[in-house]
Amino acid sequence: MRAVDIIIKKRDGKELTREEIEFFINGFAKDEIPDYQASAWAMVVLLNGMSTRETTDLTLAIANSGETMDLSQVVPVAVDKHSTGGVGDKTTLVVEPAVAACGLAVGKISGRGLGFTGGTLDKLESIPGFRVDLSTEEFMNQLASVGLVLAGQTQDLAPADGKLYALRDVTGTVDSIPLIASSIMSKKIASGADAIVLDVKVGLGAFMQELAEARRLAQLMVSIAKQAGRKATALLSDMNQPLGMAVGNALEVVEAIRTLHGEGPADFREHCLVVAAHMLALGSVARDEEEERERAEEAIATGKAWEKFEALVMAQGGDVNFVRELERLPKASKVVTVDAPQSGYLKGIHARIVGETAVLLGAGREKKGQPIDHAVGIEILHNVGDRVAQGQPLFVIHANSEDKLEEARRQLLDAHTWSEERVEPLPLFYEVIRSEEA
Amino acid sequence: MRAVDIIIKKRDGKELTREEIEFFINGFAKDEIPDYQASAWAMVVLLNGMSTRETTDLTLAIANSGETMDLSQVVPVAVDKHSTGGVGDKTTLVVEPAVAACGLAVGKISGRGLGFTGGTLDKLESIPGFRVDLSTEEFMNQLASVGLVLAGQTQDLAPADGKLYALRDVTGTVDSIPLIASSIMSKKIASGADAIVLDVKVGLGAFMQELAEARRLAQLMVSIAKQAGRKATALLSDMNQPLGMAVGNALEVVEAIRTLHGEGPADFREHCLVVAAHMLALGSVARDEEEERERAEEAIATGKAWEKFEALVMAQGGDVNFVRELERLPKASKVVTVDAPQSGYLKGIHARIVGETAVLLGAGREKKGQPIDHAVGIEILHNVGDRVAQGQPLFVIHANSEDKLEEARRQLLDAHTWSEERVEPLPLFYEVIRSEEA
C-alpha cells in the first residue's frame, strides 16, 4: 500500500477501505507518512467528502492511534458531553457536577479556547491552583473516587488527532464535516465514554452557521457513536447570541457557580437542565428525560451539584476558598457599564462579535499557546427579543486596558442591533437527534 | 498575505489574483511556504481548476522563480519544440537539426525518460562523451556559434517547477491540466524561446488518452504563450502506437540519424517534417507551412540537417565517430526477431505496453535517477492497418538478459492485436491549434 495511491483513489471519488484508512492514519501518526501527503489527503477529503462508513473507520483509526482509556475498570457507566464551541458556553461547569451528583460518573476531556470561542480548561484555570494536566492514572483514580474529572487531553490520547488538527489549521482543511466529526468523536471514544451528549452549536457565534450543516454533523457523529458501540444524543442549540450573560473566564466561572446555587440567567439554567437530562437519560436504563430533568433540578436545589463542584476543585488542586468567596476570583481593573443608546427591541446580539471582543480584551487567544487574562470579559445584560429603554444598562465591560475598553465598547454597541417592532426570542434548541434516528 | 488564506480562497472556488499566485510560488521556491501547504494548494487547483488568466500568472511566477535566459543577446529569434511525452518519440533529434540547418536558432532544454516514456537526454547519452549538463553560459555560447543546443535543465531555471513537480509526484496532484500546462510553459518561457511548437500526444502511450483533454491542454498552453508574448502552435498527434519503429535509446538515435540521411520509417519522417514546418513557420515572417516544409525537406536532402547534427554532437563533447559509424553505438547481446503468430490486419500496437516493455528491458526507469541501459530496446516492424502474414517478422527485441527477453516477447505479442477485417491506419495528427485560435 502506498500513501499516494490512497490520495489518488479518494481524489478520483472512490471510497477508501478500512485498511487503507488505517494505513494512512497509522503511517501519519508514526511520521512514516509526511505532512505534505496528509495535507493533500485532508484537502481531498474536504472537497470529495467521505461516507459514514469511511468516517467511522477514520474515527476509530484516530482513536486507536494512541492509548485508549478503559473506564469500565473504575465505573459501571461513564457519560460525557461535548460542545462544538460557542460564546459564553460554560455549560460543562454546571452540567457535569449536576450529573455526577446524580450518581453517574463523568470523566471529561476538555479543550482550550481558540479564536472567538472559549474553552473549559481556561475557565477552570481562573481558580488558583486548579490543575488540568492529569495523567491517565490520576484521571482514572479521580473518576473512581470523586465521580467527576475535567482535564486536558493527555499527549497519548488520539495523538493522530492533535497532529492532524495542527496540519488542518494551516492548510485550509478545517471546515470538513467528516474531519470535524472524526476529530471530536475519536477523542470521546479514546477517552472511554459509554454515552455522549453532543451539543452542536448553530449560528453566528458557532463554527456552523447553517442548521442543515449542523444537522449533518450531528447525525454523522451520532452514527459514528452507534457504529462504535456507544450511546449518543445530539442537541442542535442556538449560538446566534451568547449563552447566558458572562463571556470571559473568571466571569463565566462566577455565572456557573451562581447557576449551581440555583441562581444565574434563566436561559443558561434551562440550557444546562436540558443537557443534563439528556446525559442522565443516556446513562440510565429508564431514559425518561422528564424524570431525569427533575433529578438534575433536585441536584441543584439540594446543593449536591455544588458540593460535587467543590469536590472537583479540591481533587484537582484548586483553592476552594476562591469558589466559595467569588469576589476573590481574578478581577479586571476597569469595570464599565454601557447604557442602551436607544430604546427598542433587541433584534440581534452578534455572538461572534461578542466572542471576538472578549479575545480583544485578552480573554482568549488567536494562536495556540498564547497567554490569556482570566479577569477580563463582558456581561451581556439582555437577550434577543427583550425590550430595552434608552439609558438602561446594556452590557458591562471588564477590561485591564483603557484602549481596549474603548474598542470593546464600540464593537459591542455594533453587536447589538435594534428593531422598533416586537422581536421573537431565539429558541435555546432546534432539534434533538437520537441514536435510533441517525 | 498568508498561504493558508490563499488555499482557502481557491478551495472556496474563487479566482486568485496575480499577487496571490506570485506570493505563493515565490514563498514555496524560497522554502518559506512549506511542502504541506503547497501540496494542499496543488490538490485544490487539481480539483477546483484555474482560469486561463490564473494559469498564465502561475506559469510566469514559476518561470520567474529563478534565472531566465535572454536569448535575444545571441540570436534574433529562438524557436523550440516540446513533446508531452510518448513512446518512440525521437522527433527532437531530427527536427531540431533540420530547423537549425534552415537558419533558425534552436536552444532546447530537454528531459529524461520517466515511466513508459523516453527522454531526449537519455537518447543523446547513447553517444559516448555527449554532455547534456551545460551551464547557462555554455548554452548561450553554443546557441550563438552552432545555432543548436540540446541540454538538460540547469538548477537555476524555474526552480519552483522542479520542487513542485517532485511534490506533485507523491501527492496525487500530477493530473491537473493547469499544473501540467504551467510546468511545461514555465520552462519554455524561462529558457527564452520566442516561438514554441507544442507536440501534444494523445492516446494509449501518452499521459492524455482523450482528445478533448489533450485539446484543453493544448489550447491552454497556446493561450499562455500568447499572454506571455511568445508565439506558439500546438499539434495534437497520435500516440496510440509507437512513433516510428525504434523504442530504446541507441536504437532511436540510429533511427533518427537514418531519418536525417533521408531514410527511416515513412510515418516518423512525415511527423518530423510537419513539426519542422510549423517551427519554421512560427519563427519566420511569412508563416507559410507548405513552403517551410519544403525547406525542411531540402535541409535533409542536401545533408545540411545531418551536418548540423554532427556539429551539435561535436559541440557537446560527443564522439562523432559513433554517429558516423552507427554499428559502434551500444549494442545489446541478444537480438531476436519475433514472427507474426497469425495472419491478419494489425488493429492495435499498444504504445504504453511497448513503452513499459522497453523499461522492463532496461531502456527506461521507474524512478528518477535510476541507471539505464542504452543498448536495449525494441523495433516494431509494422503500423496499425498493415496486413501481416503469419511467420513474417513482427518485432525485434534487443535485450541483455534472457529472462527479460522472454517476458518482453510475451508482452509485445499481447501489445499487438489483430483483425480479420481491413483496419484503417491511424492518423499522425488530429488537430493544429494556432495562437490566433486559442
Task: Describe the secondary structure blueprint for this structure.
2 copies of one chain form a homodimer.
Chain A: H1 3-11, H2 18-29, H3 35-48, H4 52-63, E1 78-83, H5 91-101, E2 105-110, H6 120-124, H7 136-145, E3 148-152, H8 159-169, H9 177-190, E4 195-202, H10 211-227, E5 231-238, E6 246-247, H11 249-260, H12 266-283, H13 289-301, H14 304-315, H15 320-324, E7 334-339, E8 344-349, H16 351-361, E9 377-380, E10 387-388, E11 393-399, H17 402-415, E12 416-419, E13 429-434
Parallel strand pairs in A: 1-2, 1-4, 2-3, 4-5
Antiparallel strand pairs in A: 5-13, 6-9, 7-11, 8-10, 8-12, 9-11
Helix pairs in contact in A: 1-3, 2-4, 2-8, 4-9, 4-10, 5-11, 5-12, 5-13, 5-14, 9-10, 12-13, 16-17
Précis, in short:
2 copies of one chain form a homodimer. By secondary structure, chain A is an alpha/beta fold.
Features:
alpha/beta, globular, homodimer, 17 helices, 438 residues
What features would you describe in this structure?
- 2 copies of one chain form a homodimer.
- Helix content of chain A is 46%, strand content 16%.
- Chain A has 438 residues and is of the alpha/beta class.
- In chain A, the strands form 3 sheets. The first copy, chain A, has a 6-stranded mixed beta sheet, sandwiched between helices.
- The model of chain A has no long low-confidence stretch (mean pLDDT 94).
- Chains A and B meet through α1 and α3 of A and α1 and α3 of B.
